[in-house]
Amino acid sequence: MPGATPDTPCRVHRLVVRGAEQTHESVIRNELRALRTASNLGEIHAACAVAAAHLESLQIFEAADFAVDRARADGSQGDMPLADVVVTVSERQRLATASTGVHSTAGEGSMDAEVRVRNLFGRAEPRWGGADARLHAEVCKTVLSHQRKSSRSGDGRAETEGRGCHEVSYEAGLREVMCCPAHELAHS
């Protein structure tokens, strides 16, 4: 808008979204809610800058670019000029990956699995409570043998599941205590 300053009064007339082929427009429009209450060009530009950062943090867009221009139809509302905001996004490729692993060290075994999904259904998945997330699970088994020094051996199992920055874990231990004849302890 030629000759306009950040203090120039202005309201958003129309929001146009371009480049969203895989992603629902509602994901992008949701990040632009602050435009509804913007009352000057400075507030419009600030809302666009914050929205661009949020859209890029979703990790489903390569870029999000904004253009603010005078509204073509009905260029003013009373004395207040109106502006059209055009957001153009470049989407990343949809992604779904999985990885698994089995590890064994000195009688301890563990298995883990992880699944990552990016924008599978076009709604910026996965996001729980506004945070980016991934699903991770791990199962472990530990065997401890103390039979050389005593008649005890231990068996432990653990499971963990995580989603983003939250984690649910479970751990259990099982001890088998058995009587060993004295001659077995003497030979060990």
Element-level helix/strand string: EHHEEEEEEEEEEH
Structural class by SSE content: alpha+beta
Strands, total number? 11
**Intertermini distance:** 89 Å
Name the beta content range: over 45%
Sheet with the most strands, sense and barrel status = 5 strands, antiparallel
**Percent helix range:** 10-25%
Ranges with pLDDT <50 over ≥5 residues? Answer: none
Give me the side-by-side strand order of the main sheet: 5-6-9-10-11
Number of helices: 3
Keywords:
single chain, 3 helices, alpha+beta, 49% strand, 188 residues, 4-stranded mixed sheet, 5-stranded antiparallel sheet, 2 domains, Ubiquitin-like (UB roll)
Question: Summed up, what is this model?
Answer:
It contains 3 helices and 11 strands. It has helices at 25-31, 41-57, 182-187; strands at residues 11-18, 61-70, 76-77, 80-91, 95-105, 108-118, 127-128, 131-132, 135-145, 152-163, 166-177.
